[in-house]
Amino acid sequence: MNRVLGNAGVSTGASSGLPSAIAAERDRWVLWLPVALGLGIAGYFSLPHEPPPWLAVASPVLLAAALVLRRQPWGPVLIGLAALAGGFSLAQIRTIAVEAPVLERRMGPVTVSGTIETASLNRRGTWRITISQARISGVPPELTPRRIRIGVRSSDAGLQPGRIFSVRAILQPPLAPVIPGGFDFARRAWYRQLGAVGFAVSRPTIAPARDPPGPRARIDLLRQRIVQRIANVLPGEEGAIAAALTTGERGAIPETVLIAMRDAGLAHLLAISGLHFSLVAALLFGGLRAALAAVPFIALRFPIKKWAAAGALGGALVYLLISGASIPTQRAFIMLSVVLLAVMLDRAAISMRLVAFAAAAVLLIAPESLLGASFQMSFAAVIALVAFYETVSGRLAGWRADAGLARRIALYALGVGLTTLIAGLATGPYAIYHFNRFAVFGIVANVLAVPITGLWIMPCAILAFLLMPLELEALALQPMGWGIAAVVAVAKTVSSWPSAVLLVPAMPAAFLALATCGGLWLCLWRGRLRVLGVIPILAAVLTGARERPPDILTGLDPGAIAVRLADGLAIAPGTRRFTREYWLRSAGFGEPAPWPDGRAATSSALACDGIGCFLRRGPNSVAIALDRAALMEDCHKATLLIASVRVARKRCRTPGTLIDLRQRRREGALAIWLEQDGPRVLSARQVRGERPWVAQYWRKRLTKRP
User: Fold this and answer.
1) How confident is the model at residue 16 (pLDDT cuts 50, 70, 90)?
2) Which residues contact 632 (CB under 8 A, 6 or more apart)?
3) Could you give the CA distance from residue 193 to residue 148 in angstroms, rounded to a whole number?
4) What is the pLDDT of residues 68-120, one digit of tens each?
5) For 436, left (φ over 0), alpha (ψ -120 to 50), or beta?
6) Separation of alpha carbons 221 and 223, rounded Å
7) Where are the domains of the chain?
8) Partners of 127 in the β-ladder
9) Any idea of the CA torsion for 651, 653, 656, 661, to the nearest 10 degrees?
10) Which residues are CB-neighbours of 295 under 8 A, at least 6 positions away?
């Protein structure tokens, strides 16, 4: 890949046809190939309709043309276009390859049976069971989802991977976004071939597996046993966090701890990521290399550094399997593998080219990961850190030369602080976009907690794994619990400080796109050209500042309605807890404003009684009919009528816009802005388009079947 771009456009004409600053950075051009790949993937997912299949063959044609014409002046441009088309094709092919039936509507109670694929217990005492080879009573096999996830309240210890599971349950399609432009759970489920979710309404029936458990079931059983053995030694929040760090099972972590870790900027320590894989690999690499170096016969005759790297890679692979091999952990393992393979091949362990190669590898395997916060934040942090240390590495090396113990400790603390600061700045736009919050004191919390994690908790975790076959894991788990308690104490202390969290309303997609473009431009170039990256970053800030939150939100449930008032977001009592929390977060509020009930005096512009509400804002008069009894009056005076029931439009002659329950369920969640020229409505269906993971798309596919 480097050779292709290095030979591209080497003629004088090509150089004179490019800006001199870009031509001088020819050795960095290759870094933009994964960016072009990502742009193609993003282009595919931004389409309102599924593209025709023939577009998938465009990238091979462009790539062949680029290889033939790479020495022409416009050869690099053609290579970039080929990478962009390749990203588009990859995403399209991946979508087709994972196609599996999706439940078209809510149904049940029905009998659901299948083989338990995964089973995890959450903090509320509910098992989350994913079954494969599923069967649903009354549903033909060709229309049955490949995987189904069911919540089960049970104390039965037999809920283990590989066993046959049967239960009466209520099922529905994977959840659509609860706000237009919000996280699309159904899209994520599509790429996991998860076609239905639901909850049990009866006691499950469990039978032994008909066949011996496969490799995946055996690994999941091992994970369950590890979680249980950790809980036996460390009950409570320390054991729950220890299980999360070793097996990836975070369901048992108390909600208060999750909130404290999130508000302190330490949530990344709970999810197995590149940091954890790096710590495990570094500890294994250092320990193996030291052990081999202690034997002169081996140290003087064999490449012990490469052997240690191979051993660290093997240990990281075991960690990947034990942690569940989720998409984020697979990505972290790929990045780490690139680094360790570079060590074994006598290449620089950390470089921007290796980061680019790792990003391309991840996108080739799972193009949909580009849309996830995990991919975006991890690569943003790594790219920013590599770019920063590329710039200051010479100066840091001079500071470390002949440094004593005190200076080394000070340099370590400085390194942790700088790393946290750079990573925090790089991931800040993504935290704001995806989670609507920014941990103000995150650098302080990380400077305190990351050394404890790296120097105490993770070494104890590795030692616990090694001692488990001897049933001596308590010797390592008890000290591990002390370290975890210290990190939780840091999180609770920092998160309790005034203004520890900055809450911001939802940002538009343009904000993230501009911030990403600016950040990549700053990091991938090395000369004066990089300064231009500040322009899109400033544009992102201005775009976010100009974004106006919606005045009214509605959900799929009849009573799911929220109204933005002067003192916050008021949410109707009939709104589900999950929707309520998501709406508050997207609005940038921690707590809802009170919803008027008509029984107490209120200064709110929203007036309610038992059957409906009325809001007047500028030229707009909004009626919210919670009951049919409110329609008679509201149909004649409201410029916007939102009804929680189906409305016969012939009988309801409103002078403005009518949104009834039929439209809300057809269009999905709605965001409404009350403007001078009338209400402006945006639906989740408009944003999502007609894509395979949308229920309407699948319903149309079903109607076309012979």
Assistant:
1) very low
2) none
3) 9
4) 666 666 667 778 888 888 899 899 999 999 999 888 888 879 999 998 888 88
5) left
6) 5
7) 2-97, 107-213, 225-503, 509-546, 552-675
8) 121, 152
9) 0
10) none
Which pair of tokens denotes residue 578?
């999950």
Compute the distance between CA of residue 133 and CA of residue 72 in angstroms, rounded to an integer.
54
The token pair at 512 is 């993230």
Q: In what order do the strands lie in the sheet with 657-659?
A: 606-608, 612-617, 620-625, 640-643, 657-659
| Residues 6 or more apart whose Cβ sits within 8 Å of residue 638 | 614, 621, 622, 623, 654, 655, 656
Q: What are the Cα distances from residue 39, in Å, to 35, 44, 417?
A: 6, 9, 33
- 704/645: higher pLDDT: 645
Single-letter amino acid code for the residue at 68: V
Separation of alpha carbons 72 and 462, rounded Å: 54
The C-alpha angle 149, 152, 158, rounded to 5 degrees, equals: 100
**φ and ψ at 182, to 5 degrees?**
-80, 180
Taken as a whole, the chain contains a residue count of 706
Closest-CA residue to 670 (of 689, 687, 653): 687
* Spatial contact of 14 and 511, defined as CB atoms under 8 Å apart: no
Give dist(CA 62, CA 58) in Å, integer.
6
How many angstroms separate the CA atoms of 554 and 626, rounded? 12
Cβ contact 456:487 at 8 Å? no
Residue type, 439: A
Give the start-end residues of each E strand in 493-567: 501-503, 552-554, 561-565
Is this prediction's pTM over 0.90?
no
Whether the per-residue pLDDT at 660 is higher than 70: the answer is: yes
Element (H, E) at 339: helix 327-344
Beta bridge partners of 438: 502
Q: Which CATH class is domain 107-213?
A: mainly beta
Q: Which two tokens stand for residue 393?
A: 């590495």
